[in-house]
Write a structure and sequence with these properties.
mainly alpha
Length: 136
Amino acid sequence: MSDNVFDQTGARAALDAAEQARTAGHRAAGRWARRYLLGFGAVSAGSVLAVWALSPWVSSAWWGVWYALLVTLFAVWLRRQPVRAIPRRLQFVTILTWSVVFGLTVATGIDYPVAYPIGAAAGFSVWAAAAWWVGR
């Protein structure tokens, strides 16, 4: 009978240790996800402001290459998560929403330059909202 009690105690300790490890991993993945979402928000907002500041001197073809690289970076990041901390649907919606904000910013920024800082703030807000969603 004492062997049975020992086995139950050992099993409970192992289950508790596994639960603590799962919780620690979940927290670490959440921190990683929030940090990267906010980082991408900063990069995307900074790039919109760079377009605004440098567009008189840099050709639109260069900006096309830059944003193609940025989208590639987003796609690589989508596939390279160490832990599935960000649901695929949230990633897709975030990237799609940011793309719409960016497209509207660039389309209206030609005629109304004030759209660039507004679009940069709105684009960062998209990424910040995703970071909040992951951290809730």
